[in-house]
Amino acid sequence: MAETPQETLANLLSEDRTFPPSPEFSKTANVTAAAYEEAAADRLGFWEQQARRLDWSKDWDRVLDWDDPPFAKWFTGGELNVAANCLDRHVEAGLGDRVAIHFEGEPGDTRAVTYAALLDEVKRAANTLTDLGVEAGDRVVIYMPMIPEAAVAMLACARIGAPHSVVFGGFSATALSSRIDDAGAKLVVCADGGFRKGKAFALKPMVDEAVEQCPTVEKVLVVTRTGQDVDWNDRDVKWEDTVATASNEHVAQAFDAEHPLFILYTSGTTGKPKGILHTSGGYLTQASYTHHAVFDLKPESDVYWCTADIGWVTGHSYIVYGPLSNGATQVMYEGTPDTPHTGRLWEIVQKYGVTILYTAPTAIRTFMKWGDDIPARYDLTSLRVLGSVGEPINPEAWMWYREHIGGGNVPIVDTWWQTETGAIMVSPLPGVTATKPGSAQRPLPGISVDVVDEQGASVPDGGGGFLVIREPWPSMLRTIWGDDQRFLDTYWAHFDGMYFAGDGAKKDGDGDLWLLGRVDDIMLVSGHNISTTEVESALVSHATVAEAAVVGASDPVTGQGIVAFVILRGVSESSPEHLAELRGHVSKTLGPIAKPRQVIVVAELPKTRSGKIMRRLLRDIAEDREIGDVTTLADNTVMSRIKTGLQGGK
Ligand code: 6R9
After folding, report:
1. CA distance 125 to 128
2. Identical fold between 23-111+259-506 and 526-649
3. How far apart are CA 557 and CA 366, in angstroms?
4. What is the pLDDT of residue 6?
5. Which residue of 403, 523, 584, 637 has the smallest Cβ count within 10 Å?
């Protein structure tokens, strides 16, 4: 692991404001303080009780099989169908007419999809996948905009036991093909494109390009969203010609609790994305329970809205599996918050009477920048719980969220978790916790999180170190797809018997947790994880770049902005056009989200004796600070030469 997080600890932590829940909220809350005690007294019994919130076709023999750690099995011997838990059981209970998804397209088109209609569509999609040769265990890649068909495709896969791998629609053809290839996918489900920032963007050409390199792909199933011209190949099949006309008779078969549900790729420090594998019973248990507990969802009256993209784990657990398993009514929005105007989100809250809103700090900071007057124009009084996820939320942003969106009296739940954890791990409970701006506070009932020092010893209150998880949890990743060794090395090799999350954290004087960001080199740009190495490799793949080092420099809007330091090859000088070309090259290779904010040409890079680039020092430059400790450099004069070389160049 790179550097200790202690250096960054001091600035955040002088917060002493607390906001206890109102007595009215606590009185009707889904979960009370007793949950912590119950879980502490009998952790596995607690999770067993939460698993009973789902319908199982066959009961489990054991709650947890931890005989071969860290390879966990939860609810062994149990069988269930994940999609049936999200749909069939609600329709069977007479809730078919309840709206599952209020879809709001960016151009203003809307659809209200009931549970009965969603089930009908999922059954037809499941039949179509089967007709296209997809069987239980086959992988399906989904590359879609934020439209209901994305959720339908995921649920259809779950229904037939075909693990899906959703690839974020902002990723390039190269990123898409490496994920299709790693998963060995048989089918790709995509749309022609989607709407974003007032324009149609294309997805199908990226799929065409990606699939050329992917011999495992037999068919491409294409939803028409924008109606733009697309090339048509033999392997392509139209959703409108297949799913729309397929039979809506489909009986869901139960699968083993440990049957793979999905693979979701997350960037790794060594560049190759990691395929995080989640399975069925434990994942759904924790996604469902946490959605019920953390958001206090009352399915008969709440209107829930998570603004995440479906290509992010937040979209999996808190748009698809958590809310639908709980029978929620939710809003799904296709576009961006500034289209056609910067009040769009608040207009949607007002229109649907949204009661629970779950969004990211980067969005909140953007809204702050746009001005208090914008949300003030809308009626936001329906809101009763506000959530945050993706990065640490700064106390100022937290307070702004509370005042300007929550009207000063709505609980905020700052939820810490990861693709790997599958579901929320650390968060206040809105009817129990006195919240504290900027702190994610406490592990949820049944979750054992700690902060340890380099030796793995628990730090006392007031201390900082590394966030770890001490006990297995139901929605934990089971492995990295196809690479058990990397799973062991990445998460379980740092501290004996503990899961290493890769985040720095501190416990304050009350024992509340403060998350301090990644301790390794992963950058978080607008809530998306991007590895330095991936960006570096993209730069080096350009003919004029010999070497590159990339750092995340703090950015008031996106959280971090990417600053790249490059050593030239084959050319003696750069130019503004050339730098623009390099930035564009990264965007083309990895997707626009990875485009560097700045590319700086240097003659050399700071390296340790073992040859590792010391990004911490480059971050000092990128953030215009005094350069830190250079004693571990192979050549400790290199930093002053880099700095001198930059004078006037910035
Ligand atoms: C759900 C998700 C995981 C990383 C995680 C951490 C950061 C997420 C956070 C948070 C502070 C929070 N993170 N939530 N940091 N406070 N409430 O974001 O998954 O994309 O895998 O990212 O995001 O650094 O380790 P993922």
Report:
1. 5
2. no
3. 6
4. 33
5. 637
Write the pLDDT tens digit of every residue in 103-124: 999 999 999 999 999 999 999 9
- Tell me if 266 CB under 6 Å of ligand 1: yes
Q: Ligand 1 centroid to 416 CA: how many Å? A: 6
Q: For residue 436, report the phi and psi dihedrals to the nearest 5 degrees.
A: -140, 120
Q: How many helices (H) and strands (E) does the chain have?
A: 22, 30
Domain 526-649 has CATH 3.30.300.30: yes
| HSE-CB for 412 with a 13 A CA cutoff | 33
Using the Cα atoms of residue 342, residue 345, residue 350 and residue 351 in order, give the sign of their dihedral.
Answer: positive
Residue numbers in the known binding site for CoA are: 196-199, 314, 526
* ipTM score of complex: 1.00
Interatomic CA distance for residues 393 and 416, integer angstroms: 10
Ligand 1 and 424: CB distance under 6 A: no
List residues forming the annotated binding site for Mg(2+): 540, 542, 545
User: From CA 109, how far away is CA 612, in angstroms rounded?
Assistant: 51
Number of residues that make up the chain: 650
213: Cβ–Cβ under 8 A, 6 or more apart, which residues? 177, 181
Ligand 1 centroid from CA 574, angstroms = 37
Query: With a cut of 70, which residues of the chain have pLDDT below it?
Result: 1-15, 267-271, 517-518, 520-522, 529, 531, 608-612, 629-634, 636, 647-650
Determine if ligand 1 sits within 6 Å of the CB of residue 427: no
- Determine the distance separating the centroid of ligand 1 and the alpha carbon of 241, expressed in angstroms: 40
Residues making up the binding site: 196-199, 314, 390-392, 414-419, 503, 518, 526, 540, 542, 545
**Domain spans of the chain, in order of start:** 23-111+259-506, 526-649
Give the fold, CATH level 3, of 23-111+259-506. Answer: Rossmann fold (3.40.50)
State the residue for tokens 């090395």.
Answer: 489
Q: Would you say the CB of residue 419 lies under 6 angstroms from ligand 1?
A: yes
Q: Is 526 in the pocket of ligand 1 (CB under 6 A)?
A: no
Q: Dmax over Cα atoms in the chain, in whole Å? A: 73
Residue owning the nearest CA to atom 3 of ligand 1? 418
CA distance 61 to 634: 57
Report how far residue 433's alpha carbon sits from residue 412's, in angstroms, rounded to the nearest whole number. 10
